[in-house]
Amino acid sequence: MERGYTFVLVHGAWHYGDLWAPVAESLRIAGHEVHTPTVAGHAYNAQPGERDVGHADGVASIVEYIRRNELKNIVLVAHSFGGSIISRVAEEVPELIRRLVYWNAFVLKDGESVADVSPPTYNLMMDAIAEERGDNCVVLPYQVWRDSFIGDADEATARHTYGLLCPEPYRMLTDKVPLKSFDKLQIPKTYLNAQADVAMPPGQYAWFPRFAERLFPCRVVHMSGSHQVMFSNPAGLAEKIIQAGRD
């Protein structure tokens, strides 16, 4: 891949832009420009009222970031929930995007929410957490994080990174997402699949090939690692993002 690509990395649920730092550093060392915006409502120190946002607010925040920084010809990369964001961003600014990369990310159809394509057990768990908290945010129980999200890391890394997470505005996961023109866009797409990722459980809800099929025709890139390989092997993830994003 030639040097000088512009990557915009969009984080997943419970994350914010700064958590991409080790991956972004590796991409910059390789000669690329990297941006790591934070989706509206996800700032680590956000006040409770600042998390009272919906999916459309999240999309608008990324579109605004791209326009404010006068970015163009970008490789727009998303992790997990972020996939639902970049599909809508692509509808808003298709002329600014060189390629879309979905790393173990949700690829929604028109009118779906992230919750609609998640296992019912997850939704029941999240509903209960949101009701108990009373602020319409959800947090992952540690054991779910440890076993399903970051099983390839040691205990110290799992504990440390769990402490970095922020509450997730629940509407980001439950809002229905309108995608009226996505299927007609001529933007090249890649699905990057971490093969040990069981944040979506094996079977009918597995990330791959379920969501890659929705992008067909697309490039597919595989790597080892969990849903949080950005923490367990950031340099390896950066290498695969470069492979996924090349022309």
From TrEMBL:
<protein>
    <submittedName>
        <fullName>Salicylate esterase</fullName>
    </submittedName>
</protein>
<dbReference type="InterPro" id="IPR029058">
    <property type="entry name" value="AB_hydrolase_fold"/>
</dbReference>
<feature type="domain" description="AB hydrolase-1">
    <location>
        <begin position="7"/>
        <end position="239"/>
    </location>
</feature>
<dbReference type="Pfam" id="PF12697">
    <property type="entry name" value="Abhydrolase_6"/>
</dbReference>
<dbReference type="InterPro" id="IPR052897">
    <property type="entry name" value="Sec-Metab_Biosynth_Hydrolase"/>
</dbReference>
<dbReference type="InterPro" id="IPR000073">
    <property type="entry name" value="AB_hydrolase_1"/>
</dbReference>
